[in-house]
Structures are given as structure tokens and as C-alpha cells.
User: Fold these one by one.
Assistant:
Number 1:
Amino acid sequence: MGALAYGWLLLIYVSVIFCGSYFIRWDFFLKSICSVKTNEKYIALSFDDGPAGIKTKKILEILKENNVEAAFFCIGKNLLGQEELLKTMIQEGHMIGNHSFSHHYLFDLFSSRKMLDDLQHMSRVCKDIAGVSPRFFRPPYGVTNPNVKKTVLRGGFIAIGWSIRSYDTVIRNEERLLKKILSSLKPGAILLLHDTSEITANVLPRLLSGVRDRGYRMIRLDKMLNLNPYD
């Protein structure tokens, strides 16, 4: 086999590994829950990266007005100084998930021991503030690899992904964002949003109306999965 053929094989191998790491729905390294198989028209809303002060408060107000419960995958360091906001989330019926303590940009390069320390740190902070220790974990950036798998198994976490990625941190046009999400709706879907994005709060009332207009109900993630979200 010539050098060119080896080069192509290497390129294919690297591409598969990259995609397997980046696309959590592939279940390449780690089995994650990204949706529910059902014919019933319901979906679960999830928000990542908060809490984010005023933006999160606005989202909570909209959800309360519409009687919708959601899942918030919080970053542990963002809870510090926003303890009352976390308590409000839980008091208003929302679920809290673990999105790591640091959300470090090199998180996926951590050793499994360092990853586990990071996740457990977030869980301790959450427990100290609100009395709950999250079992559901969403990997930072949705990246998985063998160390993430070891961490999830050793820590007794449940990996959660998504089936609809809104790209609300990238899309800046509200109509385009709404169209993208609403056209992707399927029974049992898990929708990924971010309470750190201003556009998300701006479109949320119309998004909730659009979901309902299409005959869908929105239920809390753990209720849709029929799993206990806390230790």
C-alpha cells in the first residue's frame, strides 16, 4: 500500500474520531440520552451555561408565565454569587443538571480524575446551595471521549445530549432561529438552548407559542425520561 493510500486512511481515521467526539448523538465513545422514542407529541427544553443573571431571570419569568418546566444545565462557577437564582429555578419547578464546574475550554483534554473532581465540585456547590446533587450531566461543548466516559461511569452520572441544537449562540436573526427550531420538532426531542444568549430570551415567547401551535407539549426532561435527576 502506497503512502497516498496510508494518508487517506489516516485522514478517514482522524475524521471519524473527530466526528465521534464532537457529535454526541453518535454515541461513539459514550452512550448519551439525546431523545426519547415515542409517538406522543412532547419535547423537553434544556438550557446550558447559566445561570446568567438578568438573562436567566427573564427566561424564568417567561417560563413561569407559560407554565413550562425546563432543565437548566448549570456551570458550577456561575452559581457562586447567584445562589438565590438557583433556588428560584428549583422553587419554580425546573430541573438542575451538571454542566461541569469550570466549563474550561480544554475540559475534554483533562484526565478522567481531573474531570471527575470538576463535576463533583459542581455537585457539591449545588448541594450546598439548594440541597440537590445532579445526576444528569451534559459534557461541555457536547464533546465526548474515553476520559469523559470513565468520568461518567465512575461518578454515577447520566450523560444527556440533545436532538435539536438551536445554535442560539451563533444565529443572530430571530426569524431564522425560530424557523430552524420549529422545523426540527419531533416527538420526544430534547432541545438545546442557552440562557446566556439574549436572542433566546427574546424569541422564547414566540417559540413556546409555536411549539404549542404545532400540537406539542413541553414537559420537564427528567419526567420525559422517567428518571430521578438527583442523587
Number 2:
Amino acid sequence: MDNPFALPAAYREVQHQAWRFAQERLHPLLQRMDDEDWYPDHVMRELGQHGYLGITADPAYGGAGADLFTAGVICEAFGYWNLNVVAIWGPHENLCLNNILRNGNEAQKAKYAPKMISGEWVGALGLTEPGAGSDALAGMRTTARREGDHYVLNGGKTFISNGPVADVLLVYAKTSPERGAKGISAFIVEKGMPGFSVSQKFRKMGWRGAPTGELFFEDCRVPLENLVGIEDAGVSVVMSGLDIERAFLALGAIGECQRCLDLAVEYAAQRKQFGQPIGSFQMVQAHLAQMYTELEAARLLCYKAVWECNDLERGGGGRGEIHRLAAAALLKAGEVNLMIVDRAVQIFGGSGFMWDTEVNRHYRNAKVTTIGGGTAEVRKLIIAQELLASAGLSREQEERRHVAGR
């Protein structure tokens, strides 16, 4: 009998190819990205040339026509060799392109998908605002006012991955502010549209080389045809992507965890103290055993979450089992990521504390997995609320049930 918990052969082959590609083409970029906060502006076109953009897109647009689970196992492979590149590729592939593919109309997909799949255009998602992180929907202040054949956007977005380099952005704004989270609409904004600007690029302790910035919209004129979905129905676009984002981000962290475990095992086998490899000491063995056990448990949960995302209908997500499961996957991946990188640095000792060692780079990256895609605290709230709702306990505030959590 085949092992039902093993990765099917077709996915293993895809992951193996992605692993080899990332080893050869992405890993060599990591040191310079981290040391210099260098953005490799060639990397998106290279990913497009090798078929790693538009993984879930219809072949008619140049995509691979694969499922989200395929994208997930690729993300895990990329995360193993260079999670900093994942912080560029993921927002483009998952947060922007996949959202347009799932929620945009045919004209929008035909216009934007081909150039995003080739890597000519870089994508980003504009949701988080200053003063409204985990409460991204109800706390949103950016507005969009219809004026003739355009919407006029005013406001700002912050902590936007790819913001400083993006050509295409999926931006959320309130078209009916009096309706709160139920008055939000989604728009495709292009670099160069009048009134759109990038105010600054942030300096981060991790995910270096993956540009994160602050955006401003000052009477930014966006054509009517760039409205995604229906006016005031943007919350469904948001929620359809958030669960996928959490499951997707979690697998990148799993890849990083595996890399840190492998580095720690190799170092423990080679590094000698008191005349013998430190891997022969029971305390080091205990660290390695716990790292392995927690990683394997987290990986299975993350695989389950991404697999369930395959069945999300258009505009689906944001409630029920998948909402709970995606939050749980990222919660677990974040906790395990922090534990594993901490133990890896401990095993490396003094050299692990040095800025330019690889485990140190992973250590600085790991914290964001407890923050991005909804903080660990928000993930716990989602899980608990969904558990209580399944038991028949009503929610008193519908908007807060739809916390975007970024």
C-alpha cells in the first residue's frame, strides 16, 4: 500500500526541479542580497523564463496551468535555498498575480497576466496602512471616489512587499467609507499612474534584498476598468487571498527550517570539541531530535492547508475550516521556524552569532513568519473564533471576524 502521507511522485519531481534550480540560480544571490540589501532586478525575468511565474495561470496567458499545491512545493524548495527571493517572488506570484487570476475579468487577465508571467512586470499587494496592520479592513483609511470614467484614490499603504519596484499593484480602498469593511473595493494600479508614488524603502533586519516600502496615493486616477470585481465587494477579493497567502508563506518557512536543520546536522558531525564531534553529545542530539520532530509535524500541517486551498472557489476563503487551517499552518510554521533557527545558531555557537554566516541570515529572517500574513496573535484569534463558531457560538461583530491580519 502506498504511503498516503508521502508527497505524490508528480509533485516530488516538480519540487526536485525547483530545488535544483534554486540551488544553482537563487542560492548564490543570498549573500549579496543580505550583505548589501541588494535587489536582483534580473531575478523575476529569470523565474519567468524557467516557468516559475504564473504557475496557476491558464496556458493561454503563458502560465503552467498547475494547482496551488504545485506552487506550494515550489515555494518550499525556493525557501530552502533563498527565502529572500521568496519574499520577492511570493508577493508577485501569490498576492498579486494569483488574486487577479482568481478575481479579475477576462480583459484584466489578458492585459496583465502575460507580462507578469514573463517577469517583465513585477506585482505587489497594497493592503496594510499606517496605524492599521492586523485591523487592515476596518481600520482602512485609503478612499476611492468615482469621478467620471476614473476612480480617484487618496491615502497611503505601508510595509508593502515589492512596493518600491512594482509595476502592477492590487490596491484596496474604501469606496463607501460609511460601510466599514463592507465598503471596500479592489483596484489594479500601475506604476506611473498620475498621483501614485513610493515615499520610502524600508531597511529591514531580515528578508534583505526584497524591497519593502511605503506608497502614497494623492488624487491618483485609476480607470474604471481597473476595478476588480464589484464595487464595495473587495472584501471577498481580500479574503479569497488571505488564506492562500498564509498557507503559501508557511511553506517558504518550512523550506528555511529544513535548510537550518541540514546545516546544523552537518556542523554537529564535523565540529569537534573535547576531542570528539559535538554531535556525539546528548544535549546537541536532543536539539537535533526536537528540530526534526517539530519540522516534520509542521510540514504535514502546511501541506494539508495548501492542499485544501486547491478547492477554494472564486472569492472563497475567509471563513470556516480553510480559514482556521491556514491560520494554524502559519502559526505552527512561525513557531517552529523560530525554534529551529534558534537551535541552529546555538549549535553553531560563536560562529552562528556572526552576521555573515548563513544560519545568522536565517535567524534574522525567521521572525517575520510570526508577523507577516497576520501576527501570531491574530492567527490564534482566527482559530479560536472558527472553533467556537463551529460549535454554534454566534459572532457579535462580523467585521472583526473578517480581520485581514497583515
Number 3:
Amino acid sequence: MATRLSSGRQRGGDEDPDALDVLLDGDIDRVMAGLDRIVEAAPSYRRLISRWENQGWSSEAFDFSRDAEEWNDEAIWTAEQKRFMTWSLSEFFLGEERVTTELLPFAIAAPTDDQRIFLASQIADEARHCVFFDRFYREVIGSDAETIAANLAAQRKHVNEDWKLLFDGILHDCAETLRKDPSDIDALVRGVTVYMIVIEGTLALTGARFILRSLKEMDRLPGFQDGFTHVNRDESRHVGFGIRFLADAIKDDERHKRTIEETLAETLPVGTLAFSPEWVEDRYDFETPFGYHSSEIFDYAARSLQKKLAAMGIEPSADAAA
């Protein structure tokens, strides 16, 4: 297994220098398909940093005028569709603020300069994502909050208790442990697993894929589609970092496999419900108002996670694959 991982890193460094080019694509389906290529290539930290420099964008660049017209047109959206979108996007909006706030201890605790520099760039990404959602809520949803903090507080009523346990509980505890002892490599492995593998790699990217696919098929919210695709290109790069970091950690010490497996077993059941609406009768088995079933979401997320684990050198356990 160590040989396979080493070979993958060699491909990322020499044989597949263009693996990250998919992150410049504007089509979310191609970005998601290309994430598998990034996972397999295991690009170096320096290459990930370089892609950040070449992938910059502004949250002010998107035109929300048509989005606002559509959102306020009762002939376009059903009440249930708007309810689902408001709940889902609020979880993304508040999630972006939480990960922005909690990432600093990760950057301080990272063992190498390359890792610290990448994580510093990621903090800037997450802050920009939060500003993007703040602008969308003001210009499209109709929020009249005077500050980002007030806007976040106003949307907090939409997130469910499992979301709070994942972000305010598990993720916050990881950050606090690292803040108190930045030398705790086990805590950093746990935190990266929670952050980049579960929250970003398994939950957020999966949820975003289905949202963007639906909006594209219906030809709705073009400004949001464009901006949210940019957000998820960033997230894909972050996931690439997490996979590389954890593969390197396992190579240094095989015991980190157990930490990752235990973290997944604890976090995935919470994460599944965090991105499942509380008002449905069965939160594991429901139809969305956009025509896709929860089983499609869960199956996609499970397959995506299995590929990431394989790239790290971990055979998916029953808990991780569920």
C-alpha cells in the first residue's frame, strides 16, 4: 500500500502536471469528475498553492439581477422548493463562517511551511465564500441585516441540531484542541479528517453537486450558479490538500489510519443528518422538491469518500462506507 501511495505522489509531481487544470473549468459536473483525477494525482503542496494563485476570483463579480427576479417570481418556484433552498443554502452560508473561524489553529499546527502557507490561503478562500453568500442573501433572498454577523445570526434559525453538533461541537473541539497544543499531531490528523474529508469532501461537495445540477437543468439563478461553482472549485482544492496531508501522515506513522477511521465512525452519522432536512418523515429516505431522491445523494457521497480513503491508503470500513 505504501508503494501505491508513493507512486501516486510521483504522478502528481511529474507525470500529471495538469491534473489541477480542471479547477479552472466553469462546469460543476466536470469539476466534480475531475476531482477523482486530483485525488489520484496527489499533487504537491506547492502545486496546490500555485493553483490557488491562478484560481483567484471576486465575490463582487457575479450579476444577481436575474436571480433576484426569479427568486421573487411565485410562478417559477414552489413554496417547498424555496423552503428547501433556504434551508440548504443557510447551512452552507453558516458553514463557511464556521470553517473560516476554526481554521487558524490548523494553520498554526501544520508541521511544514508549505502546509501552513496553503492553509493560510484556504482561510482567505473560506472568508470569500462567506462574503459571497452574504451578498447573495442580501441581493436575492432579501436580507436587510446591516452586517455579515447580523446576516449569519438571522439565518441560523434554518440550520438543524445535527449541523450544530458537527460545526459548533465536533469541528470546534478539534480547533480548540489544536489551539491549546499546536504540537498535537493526532489532533491535527483528526481535525483534517473532520474538516477536509467529511465536511468539505463528503458533505459540502456532494450537496453542492446536486444543487448546481438542479439549477443548471432548470436554468435558474445564473449568478448564483457561477459563483457557487467558483466556491466548489476552491473546495475541491482544499480536499486535495486534506488527502495529501493524511496520506503523508499515514506514511510517517501507520497508527494515524486508526485515528482517521475512528473520526469517520464518529462524524459521518452526524454529518449525514446535518445535511438532511428535519421536516421530512424519514431523514434517510426522502424525495427532494427538485426531483432527486436522498439515496442518490448518499450513494454519491459514499462512492466519493471511498475514493478518497483509497488514495490515502485506507480500505473503507463498514462505518465509513455507510
Number 4:
Amino acid sequence: MLQAGRAMNMTRYRWAAAFCLGQLVIYGCASDQKHPPSADDVANGDALPAPPPVPAKPASTDSAATASAPAVEAAAAAPTEPSTAGSNAASPDKESLTEAQVAQFADLANSSEVEQGKIAQGKARAPAVKKFADMMVRHHTDALQEQDKLFKKLKLVPAASASASALKADAEKTTSKLKETSTPDFDRVYIAAQVDAHQKVLDAVDSKLIPAARDAELAAGLRKMRATVEAHLSQAKTLQAQWAK
């Protein structure tokens, strides 16, 4: 009888423990549910999470890890200065970059975002747009400092390219437009410009910058840049969607 009683007690204990564990699992799953930001969240500046951490993907010293053989050969053979003679002028869409040209493109991409963000800090009205502008200035200033250290370490002297020239022309046009845009329309114009600019930079990073990086540290830096640009683009699209409603 004593042994039977102990067996029953052990059975009850196991059932109780299983029930408690089930409750913890259910509660934990329920607490992890996330909801899309509401219009109020965006208006109040609460729908702009920090960029996600850069994936822990080690950079390979093998050129095949960052670019195909033809892309590497094309990058190595590309001239430091783009040709500007008539029909032989380099096309930004089909241009292959050297690592020195990658350096200049990255520098222009970050510096233009800082400049435009500072304009938005003074002219934006919506709290969410102000918060986005603050983030642009902070993140891209940090990126400029980090890449400056890397370029000096790799002894890369930024070089001109057709892609960088096109980026600079677009940035200057956008900057002028932002300076001239009246306050009531500024938020919409600024965010639309950010969606366009970040999409173009993201495309360039994927198609030109990363394939041109033969150095492992440069490739790792460009992957970090890509993660940040992609996060900024997603956040800008979230804000832009508010004007479509």
C-alpha cells in the first residue's frame, strides 16, 4: 500500500509539472507575438526601430566569396579615372568599380545622407520624420568615421567613377529641392527622397560595390553598410505609406 501511494504521488507530480511547463510555453509564445505599427505609432515616432545587427558572416579572403572571376578581373582592369571621351564615356549602369572607386561611392552616399538629414532636422514637422532625420545624421556620421579608418588602413585613395558622379548629381539635386521645399510639404518630399536614394544605393551595393571588393575587410564593411541601408529603406517606406492612406 505504501509503495502504491508513493507511485500515485509521483504520477500526480509529473502531471502537475507537465501542466506548468505547458503554461509557460503558451505564455512565452503569446508574449512574443508582434503587431505591425499603427498610424499613431508612426506619427509619434515609435515605428522606427534601430537597424538590425549585422549578420555574423565571416569575410573570406578568397576572391570567389565576394565576386565571380569575371567581375574581379573587370574590376582589376578598370581605369582609376572614368573615360569621358564621347561615346566611350563610362555608363553608371554597366560600370565595374575598382576598390578605390568603391571608397569614393561609399563616402558620397554617407555624406549626402548626413547633409540632407541635417536639413530635415530643422524643417521636418512630424515627430517620426524628425526621429528618422536624427537617425540618418547619427548612423551615416558613424559610417563615415568607420570607413575613413578602414580606407586609411587599406591605403585606399577614393577615386572618381561614373557611378559616383551620378550619385553626387542626384544628391545635389535632392539637397537643393529640400532647401526650397516649403515646410507643409517637406516631410512627404524628404521621405520620398530617402526611399529613392536608399533603394539606389542598395542596388549599387549589391551589383557593384560588394562584387568589386577583393579585400576581406572591405567586403565585411560593405556587408555592414548594406544591412544599415536596407533597414533605413524599410523604415522610410513605413513612413511613406502614411501619405498613401
